[in-house]
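Sanity check. The docking grid for 5,6-dihydroxy-NADP depends on where the pocket ends up, so I'm generating a full predicted complex first rather than guessing from homology. Inputs follow.
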Amino acid sequence: MNSFRFYNPTQIIFGEGTADTVGQQLASVGAKSVLLIYGGGSIKKSGLYDRVIKQLQEIGAKVVELPGVEPNPRVSTVRKGIELCRSENVDFILAVGGGSVIDAAKAVAVGVPYEGDVWDFLMRKAEIRGALPLGAVLTLSATGSEMNGSAVITDWEHQLKKAFGSIYAYPKFSILDPTLTYTVPADQTVNGAVDMMSHVFEQYFSLTTDTPLQERLCESILQTVIENAELALKEPTNYAARANIMLCGTYALNGGMISVGMQNDWATHMIEHEVSAIYDIAHAAGLAILFPNWMKYVYRERIDRFVQFAVRVWGVDPNGKSDEEIALAGIQATRDYFSRIGAPARLADLGIGAEHLDQMAKETVRFHPVGSFKKLAEQDVRAILEMSL
Ligand code: NZQ
Ligand code: ZN
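Predicted complex below; grid placement will be based on this.
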């Protein structure tokens, strides 16, 4: 195990009915002028918008709204939010939605005190040195954005999708009320399960040794998602299933708690972001296609971890099989599970052909080779994309 520091400043408020405590939370942090950021209307349809507005009125806060955050949020929308914060003297940002909304809120938060263009942070041209405080009411279990300092933003005009991470971007609090996810449609429920499992994969497939606790934490999140996702699909208002999935999503990517002292990979996420940048597909749809192919491409780097994955997570019977056969059975079980819950298996399923493979591979390694389980150069990324066609 490597040495590490771990700090996560986000307060989590979890449980049925907690959505009605957002006013109280805002009052406790002294919010007076609030930018309310939300997406394309799901919160209006579900009634959550009215519940939040009522609480903001009760505490006498001024409310400024930024509606219409896109899935794969655009930097143009973020820039609008920054302008609003400046012109309306906003002192707190409240994101109500899924990962896209929370990510946009984070980008607005770090952009307000910066004199340059917020896109500089995504292109690693400037360092984040401060932010407006933000909080979140999560409506979709998937990204972990509710308890981490990362955001992923798209520059649609230039077909770029990039990420930043900063201690300043952690929400002060996040409200996790599983009942808010009852309305999440089947395809987004599937996406959420695939995304949180992928976050675990990025940390679990590591070359770091002597990390039994971290490995078991990873494996138990995977097993809990596997057990509960199909139940949530069958019974969308099953509280236990939604609550368990929500907790898994938050734990899977909250500043690295489950993988402290381990080297992480993140290559597949970097590749996927470039697919989304060009084709605007759901992040997890790309991950479902790419991850089993990444696994096939890299498993020989450390076959014992893939054997452990197959046996402990998927229950592959190791008797009479070589390590190679066990590892491959685990990878196949991953693919089969994704397909069973309805995730796509090939880029062709999303109408994506070979036209932009070079561009995606090149952009993935723009800053440096990606991954650590196996360092991937441009030609490796291209090979994985080709396997995914
Ligand atoms: O926009 P609205 O109308 O709210 O509808 C959304 C959206 O269409 C809908 N939705 C959300 N909650 C709902 C609901 N529909 C019904 N009932 C509800 N309760 O779901 C759709 C997708 O929402 P989105 O926020 O885009 O999904 P997700 O949470 O999966 O976020 C995806 C984004 O997060 C980034 C991805 O790249 C992508 O841009 N990621 C962020 C990460 C982070 N910050 O740490 C890590 C991830 O790996 C990921 O890259
Ligand atoms: Zn992800």
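Relevant for the grid: Residues 11-180 form a domain with the Rossmann fold fold (CATH 3.40.50.1970).
Also worth noting: Strands lie at 11-14, 33-38, 62-66, 92-97, 134-138, 150-155, 160-165, 173-176.
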